[in-house]
Amino acid sequence: MTKMPVRLLYAASEHSADLLYITGFFAPDPFLFVCAPDGVRHIVLSTLEIDRARRCARADRLHDWSLIQARYQQYHPDGPGGERALIAFFLQELQIEQALVPSDFPLGLADYLRTAGIAVTPVEESFWPERQCKRPEEVAAVEAALALTGEAMLVGIDLIRAARIGADGLLYQGAEPLTSEAVRGEIHAFLIRHGAVPQHTIVAGGRQGADPHEEGSGPLAAHQPIILDIFPRMASSGYWGDMTRTVCRGTPSERVQRAWEAVRGAQEVAFARIRAGVDGQVVHAAVTEHLTAAGFPTGRTAEGLQEGFFHGTGHGLGLEIHESPRIGQRGQLLAVGHLVTVEPGLYYPDMGGVRLEDVVLVEAEGCRNLTTTPKFLVV
Q1: Which one of 3, 28, 326, 341 is most buried, by most CB atoms within 10 A?
Q2: CATH assignment of 132-369, given 3.40.50.300, 3.40.50.150, 3.20.20.80, 3.90.230.10?
Q3: What fold, for 6-127?
Q4: pLDDT tens by residue, 58-90
Q5: pTM above 0.85, yes or no
C-alpha cells in the first residue's frame, strides 16, 4: 500500500474548474479523477462518456464504471454497491490509502472513504496552484472570450445609441420605453448565437448603478449613466470574458463626466503599476488614492449606504469568473501569466454608478491589455 497521498477529484467538470483544468474534459455529470504518486492520471467515467473522453480528455488511463462494477460484484456479491462503494473499491484496487482533495469535495463521499480506510485530507489553498499562471493557449482562450464579449457590448451600446429621447426623459425603442431587460435580452441572444453562455449581465441605469451588482430593471433614462457589465463563459473552452463599460445617451451631468474621467484615469494608474512582483494591495491603494484626489471620497451616506469606491480593483479570470489573484485590500503578489481584471468604479446613491473594466496579462515589466473595445461615455 502506498503511503503517499494522491490527488483525487470527483465532480462535474462543467462546475469544477479544477477538474476541467486538469482533464480538459467537459462533462455535465460527476466523474472520478485520480492522480497517482507515480504521475499516472486515471479517469473513471460512464460507458456513455468514455469514447468521447478517449478523444478529448487528458489522461493516461480511462476506466469504465460498468467494468469496475462487474469486478466489485465478483468480490462483493452482497455488497451495497452504489457510486461511493465503487469509488472506494477502485481506490483500493490502486492500493491508495491517502488522498488529497479540494476543499469543496463532497462531504458524504469523504466520510465514506474514511470508513473504508482511506484518509481524505482537504487542501485549503488552491488545489492546482499553477492554474493561476496561464499557459499561452489559456491566454488565447480568454482573448477569444473577450473579443466576443466586446462584440456583445457593442450590441448593447448600439441599442442605447439608437434609442430616441422622449419628452418624459426616458429612452424609447419605437413606441415603447427601452428597458434594461430589452438590452440584456439582445446581448444574451447575441452571445448564445455565438457559442457563449451569459449569466447575470448587468444593464443598470441611473441610481440603480449605485449598487455594483444590481442587474438593472425597467425603463432606462436619458442623460443618466448606464453600466453594462458582461461576463459570458465560452461553451467550447470553459473560459470567461469580463468587461464593463458605462455610457450615457444624451447629456450627462458635469459630475458624471468627472466621475467617468476619474475612473478612466484610475485604470491608467493601475495599468502603470501592474507587473510581476508587485503586490496587488499597492495597486489598489494607488487607485483608491487617485479617485479620492479627484474629488470622489469613499464612505457612507447619512442613511448608512456605501458610496465611492468600495470594492477591489480586480480579480483573476480564467476557468472561473472570480479566481486568484485579487487586487484589493489584502496583499497578493502578481506573477507572470496572471490574468486580472482592472475595474475601478464610483457609486453614489444620488448619482448612480460609473465603472470601467478591462482584462490585462501580467508580464515581467508591465502588463498587456487584452481588451480592445473602446471606451466612451456619451453615445
Answers
A1: 341
A2: 3.90.230.10
A3: Creatine Amidinohydrolase; Chain A, domain 1 (3.40.350)
A4: 999 999 999 999 999 999 988 887 899 999 999
A5: yes
